[in-house]
Amino acid sequence: MLLKLFGGLFLLLLILIIRVLSILPIFRRPKIHKKNTNEQVRVLSVLGSGGHTPEMLKLLETLFIGEERNYQISFVIASSDKTSQHKAKAFSKKFKEKFGIDDIQIYLVPRSRKVGQSYFSSIFTTLYASFFSFKIVVLENPKLVLCNGPGTCVPIALAAFLLRIISIKFIDVIYIESIARVKRLSLSGRILYPIADRFIVQWESLTSKYKKVEYIGRLI
């Protein structure tokens, strides 16, 4: 009986491993989506403390605002990050007035890792934050998750990847490494490197160290 139980668990684990490997971006060709300017593209963007929020807001302004496609942007911010919350509200107000878009939805989640927090303890805080992140991803139902390095983006991207594993929804994950990362990837970048559909860096020197990354010039 015990042998059958272990055999069944091993088989399930093997199926799960095969499933994960089959959908990892590093083991498959990028999925090409046909451009449909009439389709609304829901973008879930993660903001973070320090320089992450100004960079992301500038990226959104550069990449999305004013394009022909209909983008609906929502933000995910750590509940303790008051500065990013204020900047997100100002961003929402600015572009509502300029382009007539709806108010940007802002979701607050527990911080997955505080500055200086040990890697071991951050495992548990990340799991706690992941519960809230999974709920947000399911409710928001985005087409694209866009992040640039704050710890809050890790559980959001993992939640999107989990939905892909269980074949509920295919959500593209685009990771844009911070311009401050010149010689090596950030911790968030190293964690999400295997699952990001596109991994963009802003320093060409990083392309010689990481095969998957793309350098398309400075974005900010």
From TrEMBL:
Coiled-coil regions, chain positions: none
A GO molecular function held by the record: transferase activity
Entries under SUPFAM superfamilies matching the protein: UDP-Glycosyltransferase/glycogen phosphorylase
Compartments it resides in: Endoplasmic reticulum membrane
Cross-referenced InterPro entries: Oligosacch_biosynth_Alg14 (IPR013969)
Gene3D superfamilies named among the record's database cross-references: Glycogen Phosphorylase B
Swiss-Prot/TrEMBL keywords: Endoplasmic reticulum, Membrane, Transferase, Transmembrane, Transmembrane helix
Pfam families per UniProt: Alg14
Lineage: superkingdom: Eukaryota
Membrane topology: Single-pass membrane protein
Transmembrane segments: 6-27, 118-136, 156-176
Family classification: Belongs to the ALG14 family.
Name of the protein in question: UDP-N-acetylglucosamine transferase subunit ALG14
Originating species: Anaeramoeba flamelloides
Native organism taxonomy: Eukaryota, Metamonada, Anaeramoebidae, Anaeramoeba
